[in-house]
Amino acid sequence: MNAMAEQHFGYSTFGYWKLCNTEEAGKLMDSHGESTTSLAYPTKPDDLETKLGPVGAAEVWITSDKKSPWPIWLTIEEATTHTKVMAKKGYTGPSNLYKSAIRGTSDLALHASLPEERKHVNVPTLFILDRADLQKKMQIDGTAKRVKQLRIEDTDCGHWAQLELPDRLNQLLEGFAEEDVGNVGQ
Known about the structure:
The chain has twelve helices and two strands. The protein is mainly alpha-helical. The longest helix has 14 residues, at 76-89. The N and C termini lie far apart (40 Å).
């Protein structure tokens, strides 16, 4: 993934995956909860490039117990709630998502055995592309190849559209439901 990102953008965007792929990731993030929350909700979208993207940068940030100011779109109540929930539930579950992706524990053999027509999505699909979210920019090319009725909407935000632009996101979802999904089968 990092090699593809470096080829596509000229720098790494998935360095934090290496940390998440370790057995210690959950405990490390649990022991530095506020620092991890601060890293997950960057003040500026560019922070993802410098604090999460390079291999080792996330671990340095977390183990140094660094914290950045909360972004303007994230209230202190939301940040506090997130930190409390993660303190109770832990980061092991969320980090397992990355372990599964990296270690190939999804059923790749099943996917490979599917007929080509079953590898495509044939229903209206909305892809909300956050201009500052570099990872989504990489995903769009592969998505466009597999989704026949793809509607792409750009937003001017980072990774957390539901927090950064909730009204715009709701408008896009409602419009999609009315215009695209409402016409299925007609």
